[in-house]
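Researcher: Go.
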Amino acid sequence: MPSVSPELISPRSARVGAARRLAKRNFRGKDRLFLAEGPQAVREAAGHRGTDGTPTLVELFATVEAAERYADIIGAARSVGARVHLASEDVIADISTTVTPQGLVGVCRFLDTPFEDILAAKPELVAVLAHVRDPGNAGTVLRCADAAGAEAVVLTDASVDLYNPKAVRASVGSHFHLPVAVGVPVERAVQGLKDAGVRILAADGAGDRDLDEELDKGCMGGPTAWVFGNEAWGLPEETRALADAVVRVPIHGKAESLNLATAAAVCLYASARAQRASGGCRSVTES
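Model: Structure:
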């Protein structure tokens, strides 16, 4: 089993170069690898395995200080066979995409799940990201879906790359917690979920149904997929037309609107609460 190298890895090393290039989408797609930065994400990666049992963490770069501080993460990485390299702060900064790196950068295998597998699992709560272009928003919605107890997230083919470093950071480890399908045409995503018995709700500030009223009427206890749109212009009419209902989050104060991630959290938690009350979904507070 590999151990931490006794010497710092050279910045000219081929391993460093291979990790550095994963900041670019075309190389991530070619290698089917992405970067996870910081102790939380790397810890989750070290504990994750693909559906075939293959460890997700392939390689780990750590400063001497980080290796000492997070000895448990180094041990977990070694235990799954990941190559572990000690690196200078300059090397970590060269690989990292953050302004203030935390001393740990992992190289991970892609995690995406076939959409058919998600449907076969009969999900109760799903977040569908349609035309979401900001990676920070995508990662935050993924984190919200994870926290609310959703069983899956679907990114349509018009949405941002799931493995964009900003998306991975914003999810704070939630990439490793629930199945995510990527590149699914929105029409296929909606129809597939409908065929699986899931009600489709489009979240839109101009929706003709009010979220509070839907909750009061007891309409939200069944399997539900929320469709969230672009940060700037929401959902196009043709996408709203695919939904069973278009629902707005009520604005009780003077705010003009809610941002995407906040609206997603409100909607997903509303469904999770309704499903728990009807016995249709596990508690979001379960450990």
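Model: The chain has a mean pLDDT of 91.
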